[in-house]
Design goal:
The protein has 235 residues and is α+β, with helices and mostly antiparallel strands. The longest helix is centred in the C-terminal third of the chain and has 26 residues. Helices cover 23% and strands 41% of the residues. α1 runs antiparallel to α3.
Length: 235
């Protein structure tokens, strides 16, 4: 009877330990309180005579305004994907963000990355954006992988169309109506798109959690078994 009770206790302890490990591994910025917004919410850029809004409801963790630029973290627009960091400023135009999508896939040593942002512009001004694709991700010529469309017509790269810096800052000039910005890149690992620069424990958090959990279960089982051998059985 004592062995059965001890086995049940060890199993419960192991389950609690594993649950705690997984809870810690998956705690990140998403645990922060999200701030909700609706299509009526405007983020003005008064000095540049511009404003930013969203076509759908959504949430973000933080929204800060500095140097006439809005920076959003953990931005999540309804029916779109999460964008960890998004910066935008607009001059002499009002921008309504419609959607955002990003994909990362790999196959036989090749990695495919794509980013797509859609928005509507009222007024012939300028938009300055950063979609979070910059140093550490692109090391080839970024202008070869980006495209900008206004009302389904491709805009030429240059001062009268669009340009992008090596740091990933996109500038769109004079576009009106529906605008779509796309980025596509195929590359070998270690080529145009580098591997993640996150610490090892963050890249492999799930595997580490499983190993630690299994190890603790084994340790608890061994300890209980040793104690059972040392103690006489109770009737």
């Amino acid at each position: 009877m004592a062995k059965i009770k001890n086995a049940k206790v060890s199993a419960r302890i192991a389950i609690v330990i594993v649950f705690c490990i997984f809870s810690l591994c998956f705690t990140d910025a998403h645990a922060q309180t999200a701030v909700a917004f609706n299509p009526g919410k405007q983020f003005p850029v008064p000095e540049y005579n511009g404003s930013i809004s969203f076509a759908l409801n959504g949430t973000y963790s933080t929204a800060t305004f500095e140097d006439n630029t809005w920076t959003f973290t953990d931005l999540n627009i309804t029916h779109s994907q999460l964008i960890k960091n998004f910066q935008i400023s607009t001059q002499n135009s009002n921008v309504t963000i419609r959607s955002y999508a990003a994909f990362n896939n790999s196959f036989q040593g090749l990695q495919f990355q794509s980013v797509r942002l859609g928005y509507v512009v009222n007024g012939q001004g300028k938009q300055i954006l950063n979609l979070g694709v910059g140093p550490g991700q692109i090391i080839t010529n970024p202008s070869e992988q980006w495209s900008v469309f206004a009302n389904n017509k491709s805009l030429a790269e240059g001062s009268k169309g669009w340009s992008i810096s090596q740091s990933g800052v996109m500038t769109v000039n004079g576009a009106t109506g529906n605008v779509t910005i796309t980025f596509v890149n195929f590359s070998n690992f270690g080529g145009g798109i580098q591997k993640s620069n996150l610490p090892f424990y963050q890249q492999h958090s799930v595997a580490i959690a499983v190993v630690i959990g299994v190890t603790l279960v084994v340790v608890v089982a061994v300890v209980v078994k040793v104690r059972n051998r040392e103690k006489p059985e109770s009737v």
